[in-house]
Amino acid sequence: MEVEQTVLPGIGLRHEFATRDGRRIGVVSHRTGRRDLVIYDPDDPDRACEVVKLNDEEADALVELLGAPRIVQRLNALHRDVEGLVSLQLPILAGTPYAGRPMGDARVRTRTGASIVAVVRAGQVSASPGPEFALAPGDIVVVVGSPESTAAVADIFSQG
Amino acid sequence: MHHTAILFLEFGAVLLGLGVLGALALRAGISPIPLYLIAGLAFGTGGILPLATSEEFIATGAELGVILLLLTLGLEYNADELVTSLKGNARAGLVDLVLNAAPGAIAALLLGWGPVAAVAMAGVTYATSSGITAKVLSDLGWIGNRETPVVLSLLVFEDLTMAVYLPILTAMLSGLSLAAGAVTVAIALGTVSVVLLVALRYGRFIEAFVASPNSEVLLLKVIGLALLVAGVAQQLQVSAAVGAFLVGIALSGELAHEAQALLAPLRDLFAAVFFVFFGLQTDPSKIPPVAALAALLAFVSMITKLATGAYAARRAGIARAGRARAGIALIPRGEFNIVIAGLAVAAGAHPDLGPLAATYVLILAAFGPLAARLVQPLITAIAKRA
């Protein structure tokens, strides 16, 4: 896939690409920080038929919505390639022992040998969270290790 | 009544009137520039309500307006963008220059106004209003369109051409001999190249000098620097406007945005004064005799801009509908054309030049954005059928 970058003098930058279905989409990055999500007209491929203006916060939200599942997917794909390594996505349910506590309290690496590589919260990925990271109900913990160690982590988060 | 009292009364009435006209323009979705010109016509010699005392004050304000217009225009671009645009679009830019300078120059020569007026009129028909066009692009949601970079780089090319053209025009208008004129033009070209080079290589030093966390200090420094360079440029016969434009180009990045935001209200105030002043200098009774000519010139140069846009867009691989949009976006004329005509009028060009330029810009500043708005659904329909 090729992303085309064009300078818009006096305005900023535009990136665009064509999807596999032949639709063109792009992003205009204004110097002011505004982002326009642009969808091109299939009948008139040079015309933006939809322009959605996004401020910084909205652009971040969109990125995370689109990006978070992709990161987990890629992580899974990565681990599939390494024999004997498994990655699990473990939901932290309300009422379980570590909901609302710093992650370090679970002492996952010491007890099982598996590693927590990311926590996904409301579509946002926190990569390599530290021991002080407070887990909340609804978080998804991404853990990597051998099949046995990751299963042990699942037990720790569900039963303590 | 006291002199100061009359000055305030008149100037206040003018500004208030402009505010009301601006609100009307906003509601109608057109550029306020034509309305400002009409207001100037009404207040000027032979108008319905001639000003008595504030004309001199307005004249100075108008000069400041030109400086601020060009300074903020320069701030929009940085030197890198200018160089890239020049490299990639030189051919389309030259087509633009030849096609669109021709109508004005030919008209002036046919009218027997002489070569100097021909050069001035060439500038009047050549330059697209980057201000109005940028507004049309953003109002109609065309900024994301794939033909838009073509339009924007043509505007950049035109603005750079102005940096070379204005000194030439200034030299010709001041009636310098060929040799002295050539020296002036050489100085101008040298200055433009040096400033571009300095901006590219050492822009950060200028920025370091100008930068300040305090907006008041920043404002004073930027305007002070611009006026100083404008004054030097004027003294060298390079045109004050070009000096201010070059200062704008030399400043870039975050600093340029801040300065732009700070200068915007000042620019709006003095630019409006500038358009009024041009109207003031024009006697409305001189307009009817040149109206037909202005309409014809406007029509011809609309066609040439359409052709320019279509050509440039085709070179960039844009489909038919996009080519039409590129041409239409380039139609509006505005601030630069009036700046050029203003220089010519101040230097005592043919008495019909001012009214002709005013009428011409009135037509295209008003009609350009309207055309884009009206034609948009038509183009879409054609694209759907094709």
TrEMBL record, chain A:
GO biological process: potassium ion transport
Entries under InterPro entries matching the protein: AAE_transporter (IPR050144), KhtT (IPR026278), KhtT-like_N (IPR058776), RCK_C (IPR006037), RCK_C_sf (IPR036721)
Pfam families in the cross-refs: KhtT_N, TrkA_C
Domain RCK C-terminal: 75-159
Any one Gene Ontology molecular-function term assigned to this protein's record: monoatomic cation transmembrane transporter activity
Protein origin, superkingdom: Bacteria
PANTHER family: K(+)_H(+) ANTIPORTER SUBUNIT KHTT
Name of this protein: Potassium transporter TrkA
TrEMBL record, chain B:
Keyword hit for Transmembrane helix: yes
GO cellular component, one term: membrane
Transmembrane annotation, as ranges: 6-26, 33-51, 57-77, 97-128, 148-166, 178-202, 222-249, 261-280, 292-313, 334-351, 357-375
Gene Ontology biological process: proton transmembrane transport
MF-aspect GO terms: antiporter activity
Signal peptide interval: none
Localization, UniProt: Membrane
All copies of domain Cation/H+ exchanger transmembrane, residue ranges: 22-369
First-listed, main subcellular location of the protein, grouped into a coarse class: membrane
InterPro entries: Cation/H_exchanger_TM, Na+/solute_symporter_sf
Keywords assigned by UniProt, alphabetized: Membrane, Transmembrane, Transmembrane helix, Transport
Lineage top rank: taxon: Bacteria
Gene3D superfamilies: 1.20.1530.20
Family of the protein in this entry: Belongs to the monovalent cation:proton antiporter 2 (CPA2) transporter (TC 2.A.37) family.
Record protein name field: Cation:proton antiporter
Source organism phylogeny: Bacteria, Bacillati, Actinomycetota, Actinomycetes, Streptosporangiales
